Each structure stands twice: as C-alpha cells, then as structure tokens.
Amino acid sequence: MKRVRLDFAPPSLRRTLFRAPLLARVLAIASLALSALALVQVLDYREAREEVDAQLAALRARAGAPVPVAPPRAQVGEQEAQAVNAAISQLNLPWRALHDAVRAGTPSNIALLALEPDAGKRVLRITAEARTSEDMLAYVAALGRADRFGAVTLVRHEVVEQDPNRPLRFQLDAGWETR
Description:
This protein is an alpha+beta fold. The chain has helices at 13-19, 22-63, 78-91, 95-105, 133-145, and strands at 110-118, 123-130, 149-159, 168-176. Strands 1-2-4-3 form a four-stranded antiparallel β-sheet, covered by helices on one side. Strand 3 and strand 4 (168-176) form a beta hairpin. The protein is elongated, with a radius of gyration of 38 Å. The mean pLDDT is 86.
C-alpha cells in the first residue's frame, strides 16, 4: 500500500523550505554565501581604488603637476573637418526623392545612363541617351517643369558613332530644391 501524505497546513515560506529537497537547500545557502563574498570583494575593490586615486592626486599635487579632470580632446584640422562635412552632406542627400523625380520625368524614349549628385552645389548630373535631338530637348524641358528641380541646363551632347543606331548621348545639370 502507498503512503499518503496529508498536509492541512496553510502555504507559507517555512512550509516550502521544509518540503524542499536537501540539495536545493544546500545550493541556496551556497549561492547566498558566494553572493555575500562577491559583495565584500566589490566593496574592498572600491575602497582600494579610492585610496589609490587619493594617493595619486596627492603625489601630483606635491609634484606641482595639474590634476587632469578629463582626457584631452583630439584637435581636428581644417582639412579633416571639411572632409567630414563633405561626407556627411553626401550621406544626407535626398536621394530617394531625386531618384523618384527623375524616374517620373523620364519618358520611355530616353535611356538613363548615370545619375551623379553633387551635394555641395546641390546639382544632379544626369547622363542619358535619346534617338533624336527633339527627344533630348523635350526631356530637358520636362525636367525643367518638374517641381523637384530648379534650373535644368544642357551641359553637353554628342552622337555616339560606335553604336549602329547612332544615339545622341547628353549630359544635363539639374539643380534640386530642398523641401
């Protein structure tokens, strides 16, 4: 016959500890002891560190050397500052808006070859190809009417002789406006 355990005592911490296995009790006591030891070690370390800092400050004061409050900051040269600012302005380009504006204003008879932004001048250089000069001029006028771009200027154009279709390759500068 199996032994039946009847326990009518109300739940409490004492009852839980009494019913806990011996191994769990030993582990709990050991972890408490280790935690107390670690706390004592941390407090000793802080006290020793404060003593060393005080002795070091006293030695520096006796030697006449100023006590450094914070490490000295590295000085940035003018050229380095300009390079960092140029990189930041390139990273802060409104690239998605510019790309969407060019894509929306480009008809199917124009082939885009390159988009080169210049953040300093706020100009987007567009290299494209068209079959005729009328297509090229219509594209320049269409980009000039776009809300995103201010002045659109045709920079150069040439006929590509190596291609059997002899397309007209051109570059234009489109200045963008901030919003």
